[in-house]
């Protein structure tokens, strides 16, 4: 009974269900790639990922509704271009297997440890998306493009810079701390100074990462926080940025000022949330830690604050995004609505359908002016591609 009630509520509040699915998926991805230190919380990544994916699929494809033919998008055009008009796609499984073998061989021969670290996990997941890409049915092309673009962007943001720095310096154990030096530590120090916490950012002997030194109120002695790459929150930033890029590229059909504005807003807001995370961690240590706590409060905030702030930011940003994006209707909904209108109108131009102007019916049941549909080449009701010559031969109403 409770499951039936939940299903009814999810159908009525579809956007809330999608937001919950996104939160669950992001929570699992962040726990998988950005594991909290000294915590077994990372094992919750599996149920979070599985639950989020199941809820999202169930919400997007309700029972009895077949996904429409995919419409062109920025992602499909990008992949079409980089794969030499699709000629490389049949070789995706071989490319994925080669990447998988190369990463494992690197760990076994060059790396100091064979353990799979965060960057290895990102590479292996990207390889898996390449292997599985060609086996996904075409009617789910939009979803498979989202997954592939997400992992490509994630590797471009987090793995490629690391490999480039290691090759450039010929040091395959080097950690990339440039992000902490240039885009995190100084900004965190400036915000702390603005709220009345004296601090200094400086190099740390034996580390390539910056240190931030402050004096907790109840401790009286300086404390230095070393902001390494693993502790900087860059993985959370990378997950959000990659997902947002994939969302925009699969949601929109062409670039525009609105698309670029959305991308800029997403990156800037995600970066601000990451700086806020570091500020919160230091403030917890500054106001609550003492000789008795031995900085455990700050360490606890370090383990959990990033994950909580990340999820709060995801909920806020995606909630607003889903709230203000125009609602898209499925093909059956559009057909039902068109059948209840008093005056039939073209789904492309919105003008009245009259016997004077030739019209044609799409396979989904929507009716449009024949000329409008030929010029559009895409049915606005279901997203189905319509060839010009095919439209010209369509039956007239």
Q: What descriptive keywords fit this protein?
A:
single chain; 397 residues; mainly alpha; Herpes Virus-1; three-stranded antiparallel β-sheet; 59% helix; globular; disordered C terminus
The SS-based structural class is: mainly alpha
| First-residue to last-residue Cα separation | 47 Å
Poorly predicted runs: 327-342, 389-397
Report the biggest beta sheet as strand number plus sense, adding barrel if it closes. Answer: 3 strands, antiparallel
Helix content: 55-70%
How would you spell out the order of helices and strands?
A: HHHHHHHHHHEEEHHHHEEHH
Structural description of this entry:
With 397 residues, the protein is mostly helical. Among the domains are: 1-66, no CATH class; 336-392, Herpes Virus-1 (2-Layer Sandwich), CATH 3.30.40. Helix content is 59%, strand content 6%. It has 16 helices and 5 strands. The chain has helices at 2-12, 14-33, 45-60, 74-82, 92-109, 118-133, 141-158, 160-169, 178-183, 185-194, 234-251, 257-288, 296-324, 331-340, 370-376, 388-392, and strands at residues 199-204, 207-214, 223-226, 359-361, 367-369. Strands 1-2-3 form a 3-stranded antiparallel beta sheet. A two-stranded antiparallel sheet has the order 4-5. Helix 12 packs antiparallel against helix 13 (296-324). 29% of the residues are buried. The model is unreliable at 327-342 and 389-397 (pLDDT under 50).
